């Protein structure tokens, strides 16, 4: 007997929307801040696949070991890989696991072990393909599966609810542990590779930031991105992210404006870095005097930085640069611990 579903397999996707949908046809779940992962077990063979179809098992040997220890011998799970430091999640610690050195991965698997929070069961322990079943049916099967087989700190059943008040409570505490809320259709099957059965809702926030530098566009004749900073308690301006997405007609005038302010150092605390694990080279950046303030919209903060690019809302000539402090991000830094959301933490 072998699995009816093998890696690579396209996970169900989600459409992003601004409002949490309502109605009895919806089930609500936390949207975790980690790596989406499909886990395949076929006897002694364990595979972990990323959302994009890449193999992850070598980076998380402790999860592979935990999966092999389960009494169930054949199944496929859909969930999220996360690393927890203390009572909170660390996306930076999770990123550290994607490293070519086996010795480093082995060390980190002991020092900062990952956990898998599971929210769907695609193949059960009897080898039955459940993807054609409704979410209600799959959730009942997953709950029974978790109760029977999950053990240890590495595996957890992700909570789910139909209670709108519970959802609003989760959404109000989006931050370190949560990336948002997911709504899934209870009456639909698993929609592999499509966005037909689920939506995600992120809590977008705003911050006033100082422009500490800029990068050029590809043509080198206009602005590519503004580099954003916030002042810490010592009065140092720290790089926290970037904003881009300018209209073509805005790029040259904005470059002229920034060239007039060009002056080192730009950032007096942490500054934009050089090459990273993702890119061998980094585009040069140009420092400016900290005189311009912009309001930006963001969705998530990790280690006092915006996780993704931000959306520029407006320039703020009415606001003094020194008023733009790291305290604006404190709500994310003090987000509700992971244990609040996982029943078997």
Put simply, the count of helices is 7
Helix content: 10-25%
The amount of beta strand, in percent, is: 25-35%
Structure summary, number of beta strands: 18
* CATH architecture heading of the largest domain: 2-Layer Sandwich
Q: Between the first and last Cα atoms, what is the distance in angstroms?
A: 34 Å
| Integer average pLDDT | 89
At CATH level 3, the topology of the largest domain is D-amino Acid Aminotransferase, Chain A, domain 1
Descriptive report:
- The chain is an alpha+beta fold.
- The protein has 2 domains: 15-203, DNA ligase/mRNA capping enzyme (D-amino Acid Aminotransferase, Chain A, domain 1, 2-Layer Sandwich); 205-332, OB fold (Dihydrolipoamide Acetyltransferase, E2P), CATH 2.40.50.140.
- It contains 7 helices and 18 strands.
- The chain has helices at 61-69, 91-96, 102-111, 135-149, 164-172, 248-259, 330-333; strands at 15-16, 26-32, 35-42, 45-50, 74-85, 88-89, 114-123, 155-157, 178-185, 198-201, 205-216, 223-231, 237-244, 286-287, 293-298, 301-302, 305-306, 310-315.
- The strands form 4 sheets. Strands 3, 4, 5, 6, 7 and 8 form a 6-stranded mixed β-sheet that branches. A 5-stranded mixed barrel has the order 11-12-13-18-15. Strands 1-10-9-2 form a 4-stranded mixed β-sheet, with helices on one face.
- The two termini are 34 Å apart.
